[in-house]
């Protein structure tokens, strides 16, 4: 049940990421057209909007990468054929990612509060829009890595024939 909930969350994040990347095309295209053709005037707010969207794209992408095991994992040693060693290898990665996620969440809250008292220059948007991505991503890194840790432990238990 937890896995289905997390998979649903990842699906929502993937749809959101797709929409944001599509939306990112608009201000970037406006910047390119304005700077190189002169057809439309140079709008300065497009730079800020592109930056805001890009920050969200990067943070959501990093969260999805943690879920898919495609990020934050440098394989120095090959996967072991021994289930216990494999569990230890994977656990180290998951616990480190979870620890960094916890730090990003903890310190990101103050960072988001700091962003909440600032406004962007051109759009006059509250910078909480981008600063909240740090604790958001950190929390999801932590949750996903702890789930992956529990999943790795279940795989280890099933390989040893241990039942609940």
From TrEMBL:
Its main location: membrane. InterPro entries: DctQ (IPR055348), TRAP_DctQ (IPR007387). It is found in: Cell inner membrane. The chain crosses the membrane at residues 12-34, 49-67, 87-109, 129-150. The keyword Disulfide bond does not apply. Residues 24-153 form the Tripartite ATP-independent periplasmic transporters DctQ component domain. The complex comprises the extracytoplasmic solute receptor protein and the two transmembrane proteins. Part of the tripartite ATP-independent periplasmic (TRAP) transport system. This is TRAP transporter small permease protein.
């Amino acid at each position: 049940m937890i896995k289905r909930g997390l998979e649903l969350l990842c699906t929502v994040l993937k749809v959101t990421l797709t929409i944001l990347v599509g939306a990112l095309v608009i201000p970037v295209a406006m910047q390119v057209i304005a700077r190189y053709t002169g057809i439309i005037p140079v709008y300065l707010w497009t730079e800020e909007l592109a930056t805001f969207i890009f920050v969200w794209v990067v943070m959501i992408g990093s969260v999805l990468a943690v879920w898919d095991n495609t990020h934050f994992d440098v394989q120095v040693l090959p996967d072991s054929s021994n289930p216990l060693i494999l569990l230890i290898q994977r656990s180290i990665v998951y616990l480190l990612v979870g620890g960094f996620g916890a730090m990003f969440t903890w310190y990101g809250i103050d960072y988001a509060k700091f962003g909440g008292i600032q406004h962007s220059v051109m759009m006059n948007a509250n910078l909480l829009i981008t600063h909240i991505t740090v604790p958001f991503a950190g929390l999801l890194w932590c949750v996903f890595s702890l789930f992956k840790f529990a999943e790795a432990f279940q795989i280890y238990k099933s390989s040893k024939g241990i039942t609940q």
